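// run 5 | inverse folding | seed 20
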């Protein structure tokens, strides 16, 4: 579990995060959503330790990050997996070497042990026998699965995903969402996803934090977000005609139930 309390972050005179508090639960897909400029990217980078908050605390299963020693922070970093927006694979490395990179960097596993673990996670993301292919030889969806395999190869406790569906077609996006959710539950990971994809929100949003102008405007789950009367959420989620129709239908059903 990751718990944040009263996090604030400014750059110069611009206050980006304004006293945000929330909890990201283990074994669930926790989503951060919001318009461009809402603070969600700064929030993700602050959780990762890239930005230090001006005030407030971030704790990882009770360990307050700002109170950890340098060695304890290094240990914590080995417990974190990251899926970057553009996959961020090394073009000069094949799939096997890309996935095995964290093991070679952060563990003392032997070459045989690295290969065995790489094969395990590649099979888990349905990329068996793709070991020797290079990133430019596989599709965008396969590249994203390689990125997920690399993120989980070291058995992380925490998984961060930055726009994991960016650049993918709708069908592939659904498969990636399902894979992330399955892995989250299977390995009991605390997963935090920064996204603007409303399909992801509705499909895997077990915990959703909506930011607006650096403030936590709303939080809930994918069922509650369809029924909320929060004006900012309604404007954000139901900007398309499709979601407007879904909302109108749900509210009509709710009113019928209340009138019975």
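// decoded
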């Amino acid at each position: 579990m990751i718990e944040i309390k009263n996090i604030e972050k400014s750059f110069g005179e611009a206050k980006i995060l304004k006293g945000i508090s929330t909890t990201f639960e283990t074994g669930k897909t926790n989503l951060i959503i919001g318009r461009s400029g809402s603070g969600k990217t700064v929030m993700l980078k602050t959780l990762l330790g890239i930005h230090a908050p001006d005030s407030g605390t971030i704790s990882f299963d009770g360990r307050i990050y700002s109170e950890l020693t340098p060695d304890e922070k290094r240990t914590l970093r080995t417990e974190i997996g990251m899926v970057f927006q553009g996959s961020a694979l090394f073009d000069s490395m094949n799939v096997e070497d890309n996935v095995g990179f964290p093991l070679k960097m952060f563990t003392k596993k032997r070459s045989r042990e690295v290969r065995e673990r790489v094969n395990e996670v590649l099979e888990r993301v349905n990329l068996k026998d793709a070991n020797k292919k290079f990133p430019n030889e596989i599709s965008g969806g396969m590249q994203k699965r390689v990125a997920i395999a690399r993120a989980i190869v070291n058995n992380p406790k925490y998984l961060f995903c930055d726009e994991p569906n960016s650049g993918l077609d709708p069908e592939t996006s659904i498969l990636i969402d399902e894979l992330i959710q399955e892995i989250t539950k299977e390995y009991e990971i605390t997963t935090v996803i920064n996204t603007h994809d409303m399909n992801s929100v509705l499909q895997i949003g077990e915990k959703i934090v909506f930011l607006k102008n650096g403030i936590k405007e709303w939080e809930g789950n994918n069922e509650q977000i369809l029924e909320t009367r929060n004006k900012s959420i309604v404007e954000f989620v139901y900007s398309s005609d499709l979601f407007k129709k879904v909302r109108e239908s749900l509210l009509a059903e709710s009113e019928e139930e209340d009138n019975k």
